[in-house]
Amino acid sequence: MTDSKYFTTTKKGEIFELKAELNSDKKEKKKEAVKKVIASMTVGKDVSALFPDVVNCMQTDNLELKKLVYLYLMNYAKSQPDMAIMAVNTFVKDCEDPNPLIRALAVRTMGCIRVDKITEYLCEPLRKCLKDEDPYVRKTAAVCVAKLHDINAQLVEDQGFLDTLKDLISDSNPMVVANAVAALSEIAESHPNSNLLDLNPQTINKLLTALNECTEWGQIFILDCLANYTPRDDRESQSICERVTPRLSHANSAVVLSAVKVLMKFMEMLPKDLDYYGTLLKKLAPPLVTLLSAEPELQYVALRNINLIVQRRPEILKHEMKVFFVKYNDPIYVKLEKLDIMIRLASQANIAQVLAELKEYATEVDVDFVRKAVRAIGRCAIKVEQSAERCVSTLLDLIQTKVNYVVQEAIVVIKDIFRKYPNKYESVIATLCENLDSLDEPEARAAMIWIVGEYAERIDNADELLESFLEGFHDESTQVQLQLLTAIVKLFLKKPTETQELVQQVLSLATQDSDNPDLRDRGYIYWRLLSTDPVAAKEVVLAEKPLISEETDLIEPTLLEELICHIGTLASVYHKPPSAFVEGSRGVQHKRLPGSAGSGESADSPDTGSAAGVSEAPPAVIPSQGDLLGDLLNLDLTPPTTSGPPPAPSSGMQMGAMDLLGGGLDSLMGDESEPPPVPQRTDTPQSPQLSHQSPSPPDYSPTELGGDLGGSPAMGAGFGAPPTAMPASFPPPVSGGLDDLFDLGGSVGMPMGAYSPPKSIWLPAMKAKGLEISGTFARRAGVIQMEMTLTNKAMSIMTDFAIQFNRNSFGLAPAGPLQVLTPVGPNQSIEVALPLSTVGPVMKMEPLTNLQVAVKNNIDVFYFSSQYPISMLFVEDGKMERQVFLATWKDIPNDNEAQFQIKDCHLNSDAASSKLQGSNVFTIAKRTVEGQDMLYQSMKLTNGIWVLAELRVQAGNPNYTVSLKCRAPEVSQCVFQSYEAMLKN
Amino acid sequence: MIHSLFLINHTGDIFLEKHWKSVIGRSVCDYFFEAREKAVEPENVPPVLQTPHHYLISIYRGKLFFLSVIQTEVPPLFVIEFLHRVADTIQDYFGECSEGVIKDNVVTVYELLEEMLDNGFPLATESNVLKEMIRPPTILRSVVNTLTGASNVGDTLPTGQLSNVPWRRVGVKYTNNEAYFDVIEEIDAILDKSGTTVFAEIQGVIEACVRLTGMPDLTLSFMNPRLLDDVSFHPCVRFKRWESERVLSFIPPDGNFTLMNYHVSSQNLVAIPVYVKQSISFFETGPCGRLDITIGPKQTMGKTVEGLMVTIHMPKAVLSANLTATQGTYTYDLATKVLVWDIGKLNPQKLPNLKGSLTTQAGTPKPEDNPSLNIDLKIQQLAISGLKVSRLDMYGEKYKPFKGVKYLTKAGKFQVRT
């Protein structure tokens, strides 16, 4: 009596036989025949030839037969569109049937027949069914709209079905509401910008009501829809959270996770000091833990999501470490995820337990898992400082097992531990060296070589060890070759006498026998460094390395925020934004967490659009490439400062302004890390150049190096003329921002030295993915400096800082690279002073003292502009001879004279004079006429423009009058502002 | 939403396919087969796979893969839950979920799939709603159907579909009205070498079998509901009353269902019913090793431990085991390297012991990995968390039902490391 009999007729004339049976008079026989056809269909056999015969069976009162025929139709209608038309009449008739089950079945089936000609006939019956008295028919019809939309979107819009669907959100039956929401969500996915699901407090209220009563699947649709809503304020947010919380106790894990998504998102809006906030946090933990006792597939998805949740709100699960302990019969994909979360939750409080577990895992069978466990021990050491010692000893124990892959992993992570805690655990090097021969993976070999090079002075036979690697230099991977090169150079710098031959050998191997440009270039850089200035080489190569930071693989904060909004979706499983992989999501919507009441950090950042790109290039994971990064940092950024003359701005500056601001800054790093062009002479290197005895070989003069490095020195030359080239009419009002800024001043700054405005925020964190820059300009000992505070308000570390200016009125340009050598950790600030030169390219800016700056770090490039006080540009030799002053004053036409009032200044003339002198405004003469002091002053700008001033101070009158005369009257306004700022400071 | 479903057996044959939208070629499964190949063990196939145009989400149940194809962003948990529901339904209808059973009932399965999903949206997944639309096969019914020409497909709208209690049909009638509840607790634990608990928690479930006439409204209360801080309920349970009064108030579905799942976390102390003394060692010299395992009662609350069984996955190098058991029997499967010691009832006076030597392959190095012991056990009439039902009240109907509560404690994933 089983259906398997339907499969047994695999004889030759099968189709023919079936045909006969389908046309039989007996009902029972017909039904059996249709069943046979369906059975063949389910296993992928082609039974489309029977189409007309099956369709003939459609006109029947037998519901089962009808259903079977419908099943057949759905499968084959597409391939037989003309025949399918035959079925339309029956469909239309069935849509009028008194039995709601048949009405629903007909409308449902019609929607599944993806034939254009049929869909035209579908519209009328569908319209009726959407308004059917029976909710079962309505909910079926709602889904049918989505089907129809998939086949012919235009038709659905033209027929006004979308509006009808929207009306169904207010239906009295919760099942209908849920299906309408599901259908609308699906349609909205293909129309990202249409406002289909117009969520307002009224609809939200309806959805929340339906949420309690509809099926589990409906709850998922509704919750996912709710998650797209942004509440108006924290009270609304709280009330939604309160109504969603009961869903956390649902048996269906998808409902639970969708509820978690809504709560995680709306929680952002709740003030953290609210009692409810704490309650909610507590309520989130148990359901997440429960998800982990479900089937392994569910666990996997749950774990991927928990990984996100733990990064965003570690407090939720901080006490639940134990549930992530791995069971030996967990599937491997669950094991690996659990391990990841264990490390994220590791803290001083639980590290002992975690380490014991990890050690246990390191003896398991599965190689991938063991490797990851060993690596995890290293990550614990770096994350929890107190445990470092224990981790190292655990790793040593593991090395003693001599299991090949365990040893290799251990060495890779020990290298990272050295980077984090220098000069602490070097005693273990001897043990590591014992295992040198067993290393066959590039990463482990590279790590070992790095260790030998870094600690060459403590390893007696370092040269032998490195030499042994050198034998097979060309067979090594690039990673190992680069490390070997660096390590031998380090060794040479530490023990120059014995290793001269070795270093020459490796340099010639790298530069002459290698096709790899990276290797060759690095070889040349070392070579030239060593030959030009061994002392500098030492400083560069053996420089202090930045410590590596603890959280290395955190997801970038903006991406994390987006992913939190996608909890429970594929995006959360892949940890990529949907735009990065979902096919058919035409036009991408980026979801954002709502701004919280406390900190609106980056809530409305306009940069979110680039999140997709960011995900492709995650923040540098230091453990894997830290050493390389560190070395490059030392190498690439230092040379310009060690060479004599201040290098001219890099060639990137010559690009047009628009180009620069349009993202051209990407070339910045490229420019700087480019090795100096290789002179032809290097192909005949001679050993004396390398030795200490000839510190400055004639072939490589420092100036030449500077020139090579910096590009054309002629660039600064075209500078003298700019004032005359400027348009004559200069708009008087300079933006008030500067004045405001100065008003803030007051107490800050040095009263007697050169005037420097207080620091102000140039780049708010929310516009720069967490990087905040505040700063000011100052002239110190004749050098213009840009003094900045870089604050990292994001969760990941920032490295690779670089800066570039747009062309500006006075040719300001960085005189060296931005000296941020250590990565800036989360919530860390760093002070930098960037010396500026005035020989950069010139372009008149509006306002005159505007400076457009681009700052780059490992995350992105950010742009901001700031205004510098013109007094920065007053040079020290700005004191004019008295005669010259007189002559010049007369010579400059009166049209160029500008007069300003400085109000509320309570200094006497002498105090004012000395104060101004601090900023290189020199008083040349003083005259007293009728109780009024007249000070004649001069100052010279960096570009050679002289400004002459007459300052009138009347005793008892707080208002001064300044008359400025200058051949370039455009600067007068700025000079006046500086006067005011300097005097009032 | 869910686009297609393929059922694949453990040898990699697709034996059923169902498409809810357009037809997708079988070749899409090739990506899955590739991953299946890579994973070696069928359990280790990643549940979510990405292919150039589709996503494949699969579960592995009863040696079958349920593989669904999706094309748009769909919550994967939703898909996985649904696939498990499909497997549950097949199990519920035909008693087991296997290739043979599905092939025997292919048309019914096909009809069920059609009924469960419409255009990828779940339509009816409640077992009792489905059973009204498509009746499960019984021998009696198939005989009757053959005689009368009636069909398995219901031709009226299932009553539960749209009411406020979709899980219950109206007009239920029984001569014997009875309600049974089974409180079943599983201990998940990891013990380390020395017997210290590394991790332990309890997964509890209350399974109900309710055969009551009409529309009964039940209230189940506990002696110590404070134990339950992490619970998930069948949709029939009124959450508000649980929150305010800590009682389970519900109109039950008809027949068997899971009323509630709960989880007693590792932070509460979990009683461990047995202790295990074990030593498994391999000698550096010669191809052999020793094994010695003793099990004794620890916190059994005065009840007897039954169905005791120890399973050990031996290292690959172990060729054979020559052991003596003081109680029960042991088997060692050469192919899978699994040693099973079936003990039965634990006698506190005479502790069971398994002792003897292991032979390893000559010439191979001493096995490095430590095999873990998996313990199975059962304790009747005990909920190890201490949970107790205090009373069951019925409202809405006049008759007096027969009520019963049973308790059972089992080992879940109970592992002892060596």
TrEMBL record, chain B:
The keyword GTP-binding does not apply. One of its GO terms (cellular component) is cytoplasmic vesicle membrane. PROSITE patterns: CLAT_ADAPTOR_M_1, CLAT_ADAPTOR_M_2, MHD. CDD domains: AP3_Mu_N (cd14837). Keywords: Cytoplasmic vesicle, Golgi apparatus, Membrane, Protein transport, Transport. It is a peripheral membrane protein. It is found in: Golgi apparatus; Cytoplasmic vesicle membrane. Its main location: Golgi. One of its GO terms (biological process) is vesicle-mediated transport. InterPro entries: Adaptor_comp_med_subunit, AP2_Mu_C_sf, AP_mu_sigma_su, Clathrin_mu, Clathrin_mu_CS, Longin-like_dom_sf, MHD. Pfam families: Adap_comp_sub, Clat_adaptor_s. It comes from the Eukaryota. Residues 176-417 form the MHD domain. Part of the AP-3 complex, an adaptor-related complex which is not clathrin-associated. The complex is associated with the Golgi region as well as more peripheral structures. It facilitates the budding of vesicles from the Golgi membrane and may be directly involved in trafficking to lysosomes. This is AP-3 complex subunit mu-1. It comes from Sparus aurata (Gilthead sea bream). The lineage of its organism: Eukaryota, Metazoa, Chordata, Craniata, Vertebrata. The gene is AP3M1.
